[in-house]
Automatic annotation (TrEMBL):
GO terms for molecular function: hydro-lyase activity; kinase activity. Gene3D superfamilies: 3.40.1190.20. InterPro entries: Carbohydrate_kinase_pred_CS, CARKD, Ribokinase-like. This is Carbohydrate kinase. Transmembrane segments: none annotated. Residues 1-79 form the YjeF C-terminal domain. The keyword Transferase applies. Keywords: Kinase, Transferase. SUPFAM superfamilies: Ribokinase-like (SSF53613).
């Protein structure tokens, strides 16, 4: 059986805090529910989670899940306005 390996390039050590896995799970579930295509939605969610963590981590020693969640709408807007290169929809 052929299995793909994916590497996420987003994220920061500031995300090493309680609740961060739950936050990721929620983002994954939301994108799968919205777009239905499981693999691309999951990959996008993981990257988005890390990117939001980087934004929060740039100004905070610890990236709290609540602060990370606040970044998601802004990032979704920013990335939804870019030309599509994925199979997310």
């Amino acid at each position: 059986s052929h299995q793909d390996i994916f590497q996420n390039t987003s994220g920061t050590a500031a995300m090493a805090t309680g609740g961060m896995g739950d936050t990721l799970t929620g983002i994954i579930a939301a994108l799968i529910a919205q777009f239905k295509n499981v693999l691309p939605a999951t990959l996008a969610a993981v990257y988005l989670h890390g990117l939001a963590g980087q934004l929060v981590g740039a100004t905070h020693y610890v990236a709290l899940p609540s602060a990370l969640i606040e970044q998601i709408p802004k990032l979704m807007t920013q990335y939804s306005q870019r030309p599509s290169t994925s199979e997310l929809t």
